[in-house]
């Protein structure tokens, strides 16, 4: 899904992308470390928020490296 033209990722996507558990993603949400939007009772994360999160968590990360994280999620467009 998209919101205002920006791609959204669900919890499962982030688990694959960041190699963490669903509980870790939930903790990030609860702590406000990773902003999210709720659509139809499901949490989604904006691509720009994920990129900012990666920049904070991995100092010196390049745009290419950020792109590699997103490349882990290969889904056909719906």
Question: What is the CATH topology classification name?
Answer: Arc Repressor Mutant, subunit A
User: What's the helix count?
Assistant: 4
Q: Kindly provide the radius of gyration, computed on alpha-carbon positions and rounded to a whole number of angstroms.
A: 12 Å
Q: What fraction of residues sit in β-strands?
A: 15-25%
Helical coverage, percent range: 40-55%
Report strand order across the widest sheet: 1-2-4-3
The coarse overall form would be globular
Q: The biggest beta sheet, please? A: 4 strands, antiparallel
Q: Domain count, please report it.
A: 1
CATH architecture: Orthogonal Bundle
Oligomer: single chain
N-to-C CA distance: 8 Å
Average of per-residue pLDDT values: 93
DSSP E strands, number: 4
User: Helix and strand string, N-terminal first?
Assistant: EEHHEEHH
Instruction: Identify the CATH class.
Output: Mainly Alpha
Q: Residue ranges: pLDDT <50 for 5 or more in a row?
A: none
Main structural class: alpha+beta
Core attributes:
globular, Arc Repressor Mutant, subunit A, alpha+beta, four-stranded antiparallel beta sheet, 78 residues, 19% strand
